[in-house]
Amino acid sequence: MTPAYKNPQGTVWQHDPKRNKGTAFTEAERDELGLRGLLPPRVCTLDQQKQRVLENLRRKPNDLEKYIFIMGLLDRNETLFFRVVLDHLAELMPIIYTPTVGQACQEYGHIFRRARGLFISANDRGRVAQILQNWPFENVRVIVVTDGERILGLGDLGANGMGIPVGKLALYTANAGVHPSLCLPVTLDVGTENETLLQDPLYIGLPQRRVRGAAYDELFEEFIAAVLERFPEALVQMEDFGNANAFRLLRAYRDRLCLFNDDIQGTGAVALAGLFSALAFTGGKLADQTVVFLGAGEAALGIGDMITAAMVEEGMPLADARRRCWFLDSKGLVVRSRGDLSENKRVYAHDHPGLPDLLSAVETLRPTAIVGVAGQRGTFTRPVLETMARWNERPIVFAMSNPTSKQECTAEEAYTATGGRALFASGSPSAPLMVGGRQVVPGQGNNAYIFPGVGLAIVALGITRVTDGMFLAAARSLSEQLSAEDRARGSLYPPLARIREVSAGIAAAVAETACRQGLASVPRPADLSAHIRSHMYDPVYPEFA
Q1: Which CATH architecture has domain 97-257?
Q2: How does pLDDT run along the chain (545 residues), one tens digit per residue?
């Protein structure tokens, strides 16, 4: 016999994470909302609740358990989650995002507690618009979507990749104040080529090989059409698509709606910002840099495109700017004589003899900077780093692959091999260390410095399209916000403690660019910075009664 069940008003409030205040419901609210007796009698403050969360979090034995705990809090009490994350971002960003989110995605089916966002599968063709209608919030302004084919440097994780859109959108809110009710994570589950997942009975996605070709394109087109119908003002951020789809989908859709690919444009902007910051140390000019990339996928080519765009903006012809960027893929140096190059690589294929590896490229090309985005741990070897130091007084070394297990070298390895002279940044956080008797704080060249501020500008100004010029503006703004104190510590990026201030500055720079380009729906406010800040969510409890 099914027991009779009454659904009192108080239970509804307690089980709604957007309205739940837990023990912080006031005496008056407990009476008004039917919560009397459903909570312990003592009314706690938000700070007291935060203290309890941190105490429990820090007891957890490892980072994955911390991830499970803190994401469970997001499912129960959204305001408290964002208060804790915002006030302790340096501690918690590595938990809710890289590097821990990578492990969480690998084990997603085994740690699964509660669905977040929308899962749209290959079996849903013909009803994608209906699925978007199931989302309960009307004013969605930011959508992060993945198909799970290239999650960080971990490869194809299929539907387990949902951890990435959820994590990215948490950073939109924590880092830039985009209200969480405006955010929607989406996973397009078109299958997976990951044999481990296909054999895993607890895998949450379709246990089938990936749908490709026309069927894939029709599903993506149906998704975009449904977004334009249901959420016409929304930004769509593409995340962790495979190389075969990332560039062509960006080209196909960027002029139809407000859309960008974070792995291409966001990565490009954050790396360019780090390069601008490094030039403040070296005294060099952007036009004089030669950059060698280990990797020739979407991240590497996105960085190359952003660097060449910045050089062109400063007056260099495009062909000359491209000759400043050299790429190595799995078959060696990308050169014109090779007949196996994709369209995206060919524009960077130069007339030069082939070279088999990074060391020979560094010895021959004598770059001022090396950028690692191939997801291959330890490939910035000591000989490579020593050769960089031989040709450069301040060698620029960006080991940007995520998560930490895929990083090309550590900060300590870079500083040790170069006599402490390297200008180093990595995609995942690095601990401070002593170099030459002084403490150095390595910079984290993570997209989390870029995309939240870009999204905030789009929301605040009603920007209708995303251009490369906006990412150039974001990169310059990020670099310009590096303080003298930051430089004294050897950092190429501002500390996370200032991320909201930094994101507001980036949003203002992006908004200015959008206004100049005629892409803002809102007329430029007299006080642009104040207008931007007025759209930034602060996680505090509202009064309900």
Answers
A1: 3-Layer(aba) Sandwich (3.40)
A2: 556 555 567 888 999 999 999 999 999 999 999 999 999 999 999 999 999 999 999 999 999 999 999 999 999 999 999 999 999 999 999 999 999 999 999 999 999 999 999 999 999 999 999 999 999 999 999 999 999 999 998 999 999 999 999 999 999 999 999 999 999 999 999 999 999 999 999 999 999 999 999 999 999 999 999 999 999 999 999 999 999 899 999 999 999 999 999 999 999 999 999 999 999 999 999 999 999 999 999 999 999 999 999 999 999 999 999 999 999 999 999 999 998 898 889 999 999 999 999 999 999 999 999 999 998 999 999 999 999 999 999 999 999 998 888 999 999 999 999 999 999 999 988 889 998 888 999 989 999 999 999 999 999 999 999 999 999 999 999 999 999 999 999 999 999 989 999 999 999 999 999 999 999 999 999 999 999 999 999 999 998 75
Q: What DSSP designation does 149 have?
A: S
Residue 97 falls in the annotated catalytic set:
yes
Is position 345 annotated as part of the catalytic site? no
What tokens does 72 get?
């469970």
Q: Provide CB contacts within 8 A for 442, sequence distance 6+.
A: 411, 424, 425, 426, 430, 432, 433, 490, 491
How many angstroms separate the most distant Cα atoms in the chain? Answer: 80
Ranges for all domains in the chain classified under CATH 1.20.1370.30: 22-90
Task: Return d(Cα 318, Cα 416) in angstroms, integer.
Answer: 37
Residue 96: C-alpha distances to residues 82, 100, 168 (Å): 11, 7, 9
Question: And the tokens for 37?
Answer: 């007796």
- Given the residues 67, 97, 203, 449, select the one marked as catalytic: 97
- Can you say whether residue 213 is alpha, beta or left, with left for phi > 0 and alpha for psi between -120 and 50 degrees? left
Residue range(s) of every CATH 3.40.50.10380 domain in the chain: 97-257
* Pick from 109, 95, 87: nearest CA to 60: 95
Q: Say what the pTM is.
A: 0.95
Residue 398 phi, psi (nearest 5): -110, 105
Q: How wide is the angle at C-alpha 317 spanned by C-alphas 313 and 321, nearest 5°?
A: 80
Residue 225 CB neighbours (<10 A): 14
What is the CATH superfamily name and number for domain 265-446? Answer: NAD(P)-binding Rossmann-like Domain (3.40.50.720)
User: Which fold is adopted by the domain 22-90?
Assistant: Hemocyanin, N-terminal domain (1.20.1370)
Rg (CA), the chain: 24
Q: Where in the chain is the domain with CATH 3.40.50.720?
A: 265-446
Q: Considering 168, 348, 415, 493, which one is annotated as catalytic?
A: 168
The residues facing 371 across adjacent strands are: 293, 398
